[in-house]
Amino acid sequence: MRVVVAPDKFAGTLSAVEAAEAIATGWLRRVPDAEITRVAMSDGGPGFVDVLHAALGGTLVAVTVSDPYGVPVPAAILRVGDTAYVESAQAIGLHLTPPEQRRPMVGTSRGLGEMIRAAIEDGATRVVVGAGGTGTNDGGGGLLAALGATADGGALDRGPDALADLRSVDLEPACRLTSPVELVLASDVDNPLLGLTGATKTFGPQKGLSEEQLLVADGRLQHFAELVDRKAATAKGAGAGGGIGYALLLLGATRRPGVEVVAEAVHLPETLRGADLVITGEGAFDFSSRSGKVPYGVAQIAAGLLVPCIALAGQVLVGAREMRALGIEAAYSVVDRVGEERAFAEPAAALSELAERVARTWGR
Prior knowledge:
Blueprint: E1 2-5, H1 16-30, E2 35-38, H2 48-56, E3 59-66, E4 72-80, E5 83-87, H3 88-92, H4 110-121, E6 126-130, H5 141-146, E7 150-152, E8 168-170, H6 172-178, E9 182-186, H7 199-203, H8 211-228, H9 244-250, E10 254-256, H10 258-265, H11 268-272, E11 277-285, H12 294-304, E12 309-316, H13 320-325, E13 330-333, H14 334-338, H15 340-345, H16 347-362
Parallel strand pairs: 1-2, 1-11, 5-6, 6-9, 9-10, 11-12, 12-13
Antiparallel strand pairs: 3-4, 4-5, 7-8
Helix pairs in contact: 1-16
């Protein structure tokens, strides 16, 4: 039996590489003669660079950049030939700041702009930005400032609060820096920048914005967009990463689903040809998984090749009908199998145990 194991990270417990290894280990205990290929995946969020480095090799370029509140943090840019892969979460990730210390009204995406500038100055002619897992909601103003954009009144790199006083914005210096470079926005988000389905309303609460702040922050971004380019604010993906998608689109970036970028880079379609089964997974498998996340992306590729796809997840929060709508034949929960306490205390062992049990059904 030929099995491809292609999970995302299990957020807070296992990296994608660790999850793939745990699933393979458990499967082989039940079906020792199975031929298993491990393909760690990402949708552009945390782990994006690690997954690509494991698959593609290349060189990691160490840099020090600003976190959302100006504190220096280490980051790494992956260089593969002329392409640089940049992971937004390394500079401005939500995980960098404890919940009680988050101040999303002043958090800035400047650190991501510093990473992109470093990649360009290192000689990259193509920069692919994984946009998931960010803790900022500034419309990408800080990113643009780091690349040379200037403003009259207010400030671009002090969070959404400072956007209120802007009178004009000059993007020309940033455009001049990035014009020789092909920019790619790798994102699982297709939300616009503003409104009921925009960056603030959809993702602001998880970044710490209160109900009252949601209205204020969206108004600040609206003012920013009216000064710069209101039409671009309506584009799919403009709301990615609290608006870093908007900033990158302003600079001419092409948007692609993050899982598609990774699948192409790790040659997932070629790996799936001739497989008997593909196993994917993530921390929480729910209906939002359809929004460009790894299980849905893997399942779509598998369906095109007539390979059945199942999912192993920390938690499964969809029913059978929704599961099949996502292209998943069956999904299994670690928490349901071993309990929440053990699932978090021994994530690799618990996931292996689940994989071993599932192999009784699917490993024949």
